[in-house]
């Protein structure tokens, strides 16, 4: 069984802001997708020589500030 751990504080804060205002089902979907993207990019940066903390910070910086997600999916 794999232990589930909370994301690092900076990533969790980003994900909370990025998914704020979304319906619960959509919020989890977007959260999971963004989290996977950040971890994948951080891993690539680690392969290029970045320390894990640096890699995560750079991956978040590359995404830019989270957009106002309350309008996602609305017409």
Short summary:
By secondary structure, the chain is mainly alpha-helical. It is built from 3 helices and no strands.
Topology order in helix (H) and strand (E) letters = HHH
**Distance between the first and last residues' Cα:** 42 Å
In terms of DSSP E residues, the strand content is: under 5%
- Total beta strands: 0
User: Low-confidence stretches at least 5 residues in length (pLDDT < 50)?
Assistant: 69-75
Describe this structure in words.
- With 75 residues, the chain is mainly α.
- The protein has a domain at 23-64.
- It contains 3 helices and no strands.
- The protein has helices at 9-19, 24-47, 52-63.
- Helix 2 packs across helix 3.
- The longest helix is centred in the middle third of the chain and has 24 residues, at 24-47.
- It is elongated and about 40 Å long.
- The N and C termini lie far apart (42 Å).
- Mean pLDDT is 86; it is low at 69-75.
- It holds the Pfam family HAAS.
- InterPro entries: Perm_prefix_1.
Brief descriptors of the model:
75 residues; 63% helix; mainly alpha; Perm_prefix_1; single chain
Topology of this structure?
Blueprint: H1 9-19, H2 24-47, H3 52-63
InterPro entries: Perm_prefix_1
Pfam families: HAAS (PF22564)
């Amino acid at each position: 069984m794999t232990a589930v751990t909370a994301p690092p504080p900076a990533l969790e804060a980003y994900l909370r802001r990025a998914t704020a205002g979304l319906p619960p089902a959509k919020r989890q979907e977007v959260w999971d997708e963004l989290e996977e993207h950040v971890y994948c990019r951080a891993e690539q940066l680690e392969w290029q020589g970045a320390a894990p903390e640096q890699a995560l910070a750079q991956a978040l910086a590359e995404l830019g500030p989270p957009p106002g997600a309350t309008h996602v999916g609305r017409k």
